[in-house]
Amino acid sequence: MPLAAIPSPSNAVWQLGPIPIRAYALCIIAGIVVACWVTERRLRQRGVAPGAVLDIAVWAVPAGIIGARIYHVITSPQQYFGTGGDPIKVFFIHEGGLGIWGAVAGGAVGAWIAARQLGIPLTVVADALAPGLPLAQAIGRLGNWFNNELYGGRTDLPWGLEIHRMDGGQALRDEAGQPILEEGLYHPTFAYELLWNVGVAALVLLLDRKLRLGRGRAFALYVMGYTAGRFWIEMMRTDEANTILGVRLNVWTAALVFLGALIYFLRVRGPREYLIPIGLPAAVTAPPAASDVSQVDLSAKGAGTEPAAPEGYRVVSEEQFRHWQATGETPPDATGTPETPASTASAPDAATGTDADGPEDVSADGEAAGSTSARPADRDS
């Protein structure tokens, strides 16, 4: 008998009257809250007005859930369309079946839509999200522990995992009323991934602080870190999965996504992007260098009582952003004409682009303000 083991919960669902409260759903919600909190702080450090993360989450979270379900259905079609499958169960998300790859892809589409509405470059949103997303994933993995799922092969290590025989979120019980355990102990692959994701979040925070990553490179670093861990953890799992050439589909996906993120990280260059709101004055104070509070005056315009919202944002260098925080002086536009803090920024010529001497104006629909050329393609991360 092993000297120690990790116990598993025998109950993953609680009834609140007719409403089932599922541990997995609670873990997902907690992860989303943590990711939003981290992203909000990092967006404000880059000049985005407070509360923008909620506008982004309204689009990104539902789109992520839809994307996660679509990926699961595409990669496991036999459960719904094969012999004995039931197509209507495609919509039964409460029974489980979400894929992280689809969640990230769908969430990116939702974030892109929200970012264009707010006038925030998608790369700024992605870099702000980079450490919060693995933390959310780590918290979500606790839901697999409650469900007694996603474990590896047999082990006699002291951190081996006990597994209950589950049915409908409850452990099956013997004649004495005791929960029935599977024979032996198993690798807690959910815990391996949880710890790995926390390490990825720490790595992103450390390197981002040291290298001042921008242009979506912090998000690419997260993707590389996550997929590297998912590659070896996935090969330890013993639950049923579709395979290609004898290798689990998710292993192939992790390898391909890692290569894509690596290519992006190595090819894309540029300083960290900072934003100055269009149409709002700065609260002229000299904040500490590490302040996470955007120096945007969100007081109501005129006699109204609703907080003012930026019309869009200008992409500027860190030096220009710090100067704007301290003095309220908006950097000059592409023609070299300085602007007053409360004025609406003039747009650079469409051919000028963004550089340290001529910051780009980003309007609320995501285009360079005043540009008459065709809309350029958005940069994806």
UniProtKB/TrEMBL annotation:
Its main location: membrane. Keywords: Cell membrane, Membrane, Transferase, Transmembrane, Transmembrane helix. InterPro entries: Lgt. Pathway: Protein modification; lipoprotein biosynthesis (diacylglyceryl transfer). Residues 323-381 are annotated as: Disordered. A 1,2-diacyl-sn-glycero-3-phospho-(1'-sn-glycerol) binds at residue 141. It is a multi-pass membrane protein. GO terms for molecular function: transferase activity. It comes from the Bacteria. It is found in: Cell membrane. Pfam families: LGT. Its EC number is 2.5.1.145. Catalyzes the transfer of the diacylglyceryl group from phosphatidylglycerol to the sulfhydryl group of the N-terminal cysteine of a prolipoprotein, the first step in the formation of mature lipoproteins. This is Phosphatidylglycerol--prolipoprotein diacylglyceryl transferase. The gene is lgt.
